[in-house]
Amino acid sequence: MPRRVWINAVLVLCALLAMFPLLWMTSVSFMAHGEASHFPPPLLPRQATLANYLELFAQAGVKRYFLNSLVLALAATLLSLVFNVGAGYAFAKLRFAGRDRIFKLLLGALVIPGQVAMLPLFLIMKQMGLVNTYVGVLVPAAASIFGIFLVRQYALTIPDALLEAARLDGASEFRIFRSIVLPLLAPILVTLAIFSFLGSWNDFMWPLIVLTDKDLYTLPVALASLSREHVQDNEMMMAGSVLTILPVLLLFLVLQRYYIQGLLVGSVKG
Q: How far apart are CA 264 and CA 267, in angstroms?
């Protein structure tokens, strides 16, 4: 019994240490202007206030940037599910010429940093007239090698006999995919949706490169721009950071059961 208590105490301490920056950021967001600049920095506000959040929405126009990020993240998640799930299932269960070679090439491309492709991708977007548009932001998020790999590994666990039985009954490939495969892929769909939403919501570099119109900025890009204008206003910047983190944190907490199930059951097999 004492050993279990010590282990739990150490785990709780580690969790508190990991969460401390997030908790202090939230605390600072409720402080009055200039309060966080004192030395030593206070852990809790003397008098909690919502002034920083109200100022962000009233003067900085964060509401517009929040909606921009939300729309882009939802669209990127939907596109990611459509393309990655279709490609992952095809690589796992459909037979076509060069399937294994193409998949090996995709896996080899995983070692290439994404930043390397940003310049040629930007030039392609420029030639297509997609610079300073949301379509240009969404194109790289539509499909990912990691997403295809994740779905493929999970789809390999689906018994071939189940699919063959459906084909013998006269079901089309689309009917098999919609009625049999998609329900079985539910845990990995949630996992992929979380990854896609987080990646799009937190993405800073690509929207910064593609978007030039300030009204089209996403929340991370807008906060970076605001930080230059309010370099001394730590409390308001912390409030903006809380707004950036809160949606993805809530999403993860709501879907964490499916997320863990998808990672543990599917992605380690095959």
A: 6
* Residue 133 CB partners (closer than 8 Å, separation 6+): 210, 216
Q: Please give the single-letter amino acid code of residue 104.
A: K
* 255 Cβ contact list (under 8 Å, min separation 6): 190, 193, 194
Rounded CA separation 262/194 (Å)? 11
DSSP for 133-166? Answer: SHHHHHGGGS--HHHHHHHHHHHTTS-HHHHHHH
Give the residue among 215, 214, 218, 188 at the shortest CA–CA distance from 202: 218
Retrieve residue 34's tokens: 């200039």
Backbone angles phi, psi at 232, to 5 degrees: -95, -5
* pLDDT tens-place values along the chain, 270 residues long: 577 888 888 888 898 888 888 888 888 888 887 777 777 777 888 888 888 888 888 776 788 888 999 999 999 999 999 999 999 999 998 888 888 899 999 888 888 887 888 888 899 999 998 899 999 999 988 888 989 998 998 898 888 888 888 888 888 888 888 888 988 888 888 888 888 998 899 888 899 999 988 888 998 888 888 777 665 677 888 888 888 888 888 887 777 776 666 666 544 444
